[in-house]
Amino acid sequence: MNNMYDYIIVGGGIVGISTAWQLKVRQPQASVLVVEKEPQLAAHQTGHNSGVIHAGVYYAPGSLKAEFCRQGAQATMAFCQQHNIALDNCGKLLVATTPLELERMEALYQRCKANGLEVERLDQNQLKQREPNVVGLGALFVSTTSIVDYRQVTQAMAQEYQTAGGELALSCQVTAITERRDWVEVTVNGAQGVRRYRSRFLITCSGLMADRMVKMMGLECNFQIIPYRGEYYRLPSKYNQIVNHLIYPIPDPDLPFLGVHLTKMIDGSVTVGPNAVQGFKREGYGRLNLNWRDVWEMLTFSGFWKVTAKHFKTGLSETKDSWWKAGYLKRVNKYCPMIKLEDLQPYPAGIRAQAVLRDGTLVHDFLFAQSRRSLHVCNAPSPAATSAIPIGGYICDKVANKHGELAKSK
Ligand SMILES: Cc1cc2nc3c(=O)[nH]c(=O)nc-3n(C[C@H](O)[C@H](O)[C@H](O)COP(=O)(O)OP(=O)(O)OC[C@H]3O[C@@H](n4cnc5c(N)ncnc54)[C@H](O)[C@@H]3O)c2cc1C
Fold first, then answer.
1. Is the link from the previous residue into 256 a cis peptide, with omega within 30 of 0?
2. Kind and range of the H or E element at 163?
3. Closest listed residue to residue 266, CA positions, set 22, 97, 141, 80
4. Phi, psi dihedrals of residue 283, rounded to the nearest 5°
5. Ligand 1, from 45, 148, 228: best to mutate by most atoms within 8 Å of Cβ?
6. How many whole angstroms separate alpha carbon 25 and alpha carbon 29?
7. Does 154 contact ligand 1 (Cβ within 6 A)?
């Protein structure tokens, strides 16, 4: 490995790898190093999610999230086709089970239209025809939702990146960053001990550790990453055909990411989930995992108390049903009554990296921080796996603008 790079990227999740690959495509002569602390890519959020290529139903029309999702879904499907990655265009049904949900469904229908999505309203009978095992008063059908394994997508992007000459350092944890006028020095702890690398520009895409990178850099950090566990169950294989599409409940518009869904996975199985409960270890997947540093930082952050107080009732109900399986079952029985308690089999959880501001605001959109020679992705919430290709392109554009500014300031 060199000692001086044009770019160092921290994080081997889908956002970091997509950025690295696109940088090498745009600037073939540039030297690029990706540093990832785990022995393999996609070890955290990218490898622990629902695997859905979202169409972009919920997002405010014109927002960065809506635009990235729309572009990302198309780009991801094209990428998968080019690289022979298994993909299923199974579509998604949003099922209303109460009169209030029917009203909310109408608002979602309008939002789909505003976002330019193909959407169809189904009445009770049409729903029954499409999904004999699902009950509801009506549903929306979005045909452009698909499923994939994002680990495979990340691997294929990494392959492209390495073929173009990009370097990858696995099992290497960034432990310190120092910015100078003309370069950034990154201290890396790996199998070969502690090493220092310099880079003309640094990009961090570090998911659950995003705030720590910003702090390491010495930048003002007005947010903190709060880990929210997303717990799943898997249905027994006899239920692999229980649904023909992805089945989602109609969400509360204030908390659109809540509500367990029935997800067909690309390996043929069906999962139920995820919920959203407080995590006590940022990268700990067991329910009882706890990390004192993570807990201490959370408890001493005012935003944590504010967000917890604001969503106390919802948080309590999610936590209760996390421990009380029968409660969890009720959430899915609402629209799929045939699933029984014994059908909910263990499946690995995922952990969302949720940026929370000091005033307790949950950041729903992408958030970036920057310095003279660095750019940090501070919040890349769902559907960032779907949107990883346009996000990588957006970061490349931002970096090119920065270079322009640096050249002028010389
Ligand atoms: C339960 C759940 C379900 C989801 N479902 C979907 C879905 O169906 N569709 C969708 O589009 N999105 C979904 N998402 C969101 C999506 O998975 C994430 O938004 C996306 O994977 C974020 O990618 P990332 O690269 O930013 O983060 P990550 O995948 O978390 O990668 C960050 C990487 O940085 C590395 N890192 C951190 N600190 C350091 C350090 N100091 N040194 C070196 N490396 C470091 C980590 O090891 C990690 O590999 C879901 C998320 C969750 C949690």
1. no
2. helix 150-163
3. 80
4. -120, 35
5. 45
6. 9
7. no
- DSSP letter string over 235-265? --GGGTTS-SSEEEEPPPTTSTT-S-EEEE-
Find the mean pLDDT for residues 155-163: 98
| Angle between helical axes of 388-409 and 14-26 (0-180°, round to 10) | 50
Q: What are 318's two structure tokens?
A: 């999610």
CA of 13 to the centre of ligand 1 (A): 6
CA dist., res. 53 & res. 77, Å (int): 8
pLDDT at site 407: 72
Residues 6+ apart with CB under 8 A from 143: 89, 91, 118, 120
Q: CB 125: neighbour CB atoms within 10 A?
A: 9
Q: What is the pLDDT of residues 325-356, one digit of tens each?
A: 999 999 999 999 999 999 999 999 999 999 99
Distance of CA 273 to the CA centre of its chain: 15
Question: How many beta carbons lie within 10 A of that of residue 238, not counting itself?
Answer: 8
- Burial-class residue 169 by CB neighbours within 10 Å (0-12, 13-18, 19+): buried
Using the mean position of ligand 1's atoms as its centre, give its distance from the Cα of residue 366 in Å: 13
Among candidates 92, 171, 167, 83, which has minimal Cα distance to 389?
83
Cα of 107 to ligand 1 centre, how many Å?
Answer: 30
Residue bearing tokens 């100078």: 180
What 3-state class would DSSP assign to 17? Answer: helix
- For residues 276-300, one letter each, b for 16 or more C-beta atoms within 10 angstroms of the residue's C-beta and e for the rest, the string is bbebbbbbbeeeebebeebeebbee
pLDDT tens per residue, range 241-282: 999 999 999 998 878 778 899 999 999 999 999 999 999 999
Q: Measured from the CB, is residue 65 less than 6 Å from ligand 1?
A: no
Beta carbon of 174 within 6 Å of any ligand 1 atom? yes
pLDDT category at 401 given cuts 50, 70, 90 is confident
Peptide bond into 383 cis (omega under 30): yes
- Give the Cβ contact number of residue 326 at 10 Å: 10
Copy the structure tokens of residue 409: 């300031």
For 86-125, how does the pLDDT look when each residue is reduced to its tens digit (9 = 90+)? Answer: 999 999 999 999 999 999 999 999 999 999 999 999 999 9
Question: What is the Å distance from ligand 1's center to 380 Cα?
Answer: 8
